């Protein structure tokens, strides 16, 4: 089968960053399903893994957002049949979706929304799982208690990114007041479209802007940008018994005691945890994506596609990585599947 990947970590400016080649077609066994990939999307995890690629000459296939058609199923598979149209974010420890076919565990896969084409569907799994787990698993927000949540607020740092775009919508569905950060006219327009109640500029002091919007503190803070840059102000802004969640690793050590007097809590969110450690609740991602598919088909959630780069080729993938690394991407970058 054809796949796009790399053998050596190179800068995104290198025109030979990615190559397309033929690799062995995998066989579905156990809980694995073999999916013919019809649409893919890119995320920051793609360029982070690319940058950390070992210089061992091994061919690495990236890509952790996909939609496609089930080609074959393993002997323990119970959730899917050949021909099913599915979506998923995959497993960062396994070969990615930038290929014609991909093996993925059925427990982190669901039937895709019926109303979406494959490329558009591929924009949602990774960011939706991340936002959903951050708010409903880590922060313990009861998404069904809309009335009880009204009057509570969440600050979403970098609201125009992939995770921020879906987090705004999920928070609004749960009844929260959303304060999202954005700095450019186009990103301000985007987060407003996603449903943010207040928009503030993350290039300016956040505390003064949050207070200026009428909030002495916020019950929840979700950071989808640089943890190091915002740690102190997040601890300052979070309300007593509130919760801070970040999805980005910290390069520096930070003072967790800033949260002590408030009895506030802090969590990381990493959506690959369940698949990476084969946790006993892996199937929760199947359930989550199934529920999200129903929300999309019921017009309760907007798609978060920013740009469609067309067919997936080494050059179009390199350009997508460059845009992501620039920090100027709005929403998600998607592809229609592997080019000829």
Automatic annotation (TrEMBL):
Transmembrane segments: none annotated. InterPro entries: ADH-like_C, ADH-like_N, ADH_Zn_typ-1, ER, GroES-like_sf, Lipid_raft_assoc_Zn_ADH, NAD(P)-bd_dom_sf, Quin_OxRdtase/zeta-crystal_CS. The keyword Zinc applies. The keyword Metal-binding applies. Pfam families: ADH_N, ADH_zinc_N. Residues 16-335 form the Enoyl reductase (ER) domain. SMART domains: PKS_ER. Keywords: Metal-binding, Oxidoreductase, Zinc. Belongs to the zinc-containing alcohol dehydrogenase family. Quinone oxidoreductase subfamily. This is Zinc-type alcohol dehydrogenase-like protein. It comes from Thalassospira marina. The lineage of its organism: Bacteria, Pseudomonadati, Pseudomonadota, Alphaproteobacteria, Rhodospirillales.
């Amino acid at each position: 089968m054809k796949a796009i990947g790399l053998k050596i970590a190179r800068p995104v400016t290198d025109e030979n960053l990615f190559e397309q080649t033929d690799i062995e077609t995998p066989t579905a066994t156990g809980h694995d399903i073999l999916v013919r990939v019809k649409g893919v999307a890119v995320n920051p995890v793609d360029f982070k893994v690319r940058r950390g690629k070992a210089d061992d000459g091994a061919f690495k296939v990236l890509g952790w957002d996909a939609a496609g058609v089930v080609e074959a199923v393993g002997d323990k598979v119970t959730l899917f049949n050949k021909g099913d149209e599915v979506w998923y974010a995959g497993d960062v420890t396994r070969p990615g979706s930038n290929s014609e076919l991909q093996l993925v565990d059925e427990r982190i896969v669901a039937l895709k929304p019926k109303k979406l084409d494959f490329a558009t569907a591929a924009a949602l799994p990774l960011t939706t799982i991340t936002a959903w787990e951050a708010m409903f698993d880590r922060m313990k927000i009861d998404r069904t208690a809309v009335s009880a949540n009204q009057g509570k607020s969440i600050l979403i740092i970098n609201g125009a990114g992939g995770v921020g775009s879906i987090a705004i919508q999920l928070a609004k569905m749960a009844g929260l007041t959303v304060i999202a950060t954005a700095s450019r006219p186009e990103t301000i327009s985007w987060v407003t479209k996603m449903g943010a109640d207040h928009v503030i500029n993350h290039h300016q002091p956040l505390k003064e802007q949050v207070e200026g919007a009428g909030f002495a503190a916020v019950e929840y803070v979700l950071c989808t940008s640089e943890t190091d840059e915002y740690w102190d102000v997040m601890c300052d802004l979070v309300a007593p018994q509130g919760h801070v969640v970040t999805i980005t690793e910290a390069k520096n050590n930070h003072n967790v005691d800033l949260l002590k007097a408030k009895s506030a809590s802090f969590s990381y969110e990493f959506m690959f945890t369940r698949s990476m450690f084969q946790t006993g609740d892996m199937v929760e991602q199947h359930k989550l994506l199934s529920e999200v598919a129903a929300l999309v088909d019921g017009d309760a959630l907007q798609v978060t596609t920013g740009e469609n780069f067309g067919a997936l080729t080494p050059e179009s993938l390199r350009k997508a990585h460059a845009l992501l690394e620039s920090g100027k991407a709005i929403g998600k970058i998607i592809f229609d599947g592997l080019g000829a």
